[in-house]
Specification:
The protein is mainly beta. The chain is built from 2 helices and 20 strands. The relative contact order is 0.13.
Length: about 260
């Protein structure tokens, strides 16, 4: 589910990956050696990281959780990052990553140890907005490959529901739950163009050329698990239509 982005930079063969905890990992892809990490969204599951190996340690409250006690966790099961994949933009040496900002409280439930016992997820859950997000669940952000510094971020109420795709022309495309499909400037995060589609824009955009003319295609639809269900709980003001599955294709206008 969580993409591995392979990058060759500064005579290094690198691997980058970011999972539900929203931690971006930088590794030597030949040896697996830890080279650094970046917390792309607020997280309080890990208490510390070993500076040499990167090995994380859970905070004590998570390790010592007891039945009937609510314990906070950020990010939520929506993930700081989920299936919408990142893009590596080689000209600016940046990773452009779709992220989400939500948290939850969990209350562990006792599960009877017998055939047929169980309680689904094994815990009660309550979702809430991530501290410091100002209600912005969606975050699209760019990170420098060498330093892992956040170069820019675009934050909004609706979560991003597509992978990011970037082009040599300096444009990154991404779509969201609120039906918006946008083109962003890869250097600044500025919105260069946008349109609103029939329903939630989700899936994996592609770009291609036919007879010298460039196109970008994206899907709209429904479903998708926690990346949709958690925002539906904490952001009921978003109302994507329940129908509208479609494939949209856009092209630059012909030059005059």
């Amino acid at each position: 589910m969580f993409e591995r982005v392979l990058v060759d930079d500064n005579n290094q063969n690198l691997l980058f990956t970011v999972g539900k905890d929203g931690v971006l990992w930088k590794l030597d892809r030949k040896t697996g050696k830890y080279l650094g990490h970046k917390e792309t969204v607020f997280q309080n599951v890990w208490d510390s990281f070993d500076p040499k190996t990167g090995r994380p340690t859970y905070r004590a409250e998570v390790l010592e959780q007891k039945f009937g006690v609510w314990v906070q966790g950020c990010p939520s099961t929506e993930g700081g990052h989920n299936w919408p994949a990142s893009s590596y933009h080689q000209p600016t040496n940046q990773l452009i990553i779709p992220l989400s900002q939500s948290c939850l409280e969990m209350n562990a439930q006792k599960v009877e140890q017998k055939d047929g016992g169980g309680s689904g997820g094994g815990a009660g859950r309550r979702f809430y907005e991530m501290p410091g997000s100002e209600g912005n669940i969606g975050k699209l952000a760019a990170y420098d490959v060498r330093t892992l510094k956040e170069m820019w971020s675009y934050q909004q109420r609706a979560p991003f529901m597509t992978a990011t795709i970037s082009t040599a022309g300096g444009v990154a495309f991404a779509g969201d739950l609120d039906r918006k499909f946008r083109a962003f400037d890869v250097k600044t995060g500025k919105v260069l163009w946008e349109t609103r589609l029939g329903t939630s824009v989700q899936g994996f955009p592609v770009t291609f050329s036919i007879d010298g003319k460039q196109y970008v295609a994206v899907t709209s639809g429904n479903g998708g698990g926690s990346p949709r269900l958690v925002p539906a709980t904490i952001a009921p003001d978003l109302h994507p239509p329940a129908t509208g599955n479609a494939l949209y294709v856009f092209a630059l206008p012909d030059r005059k």
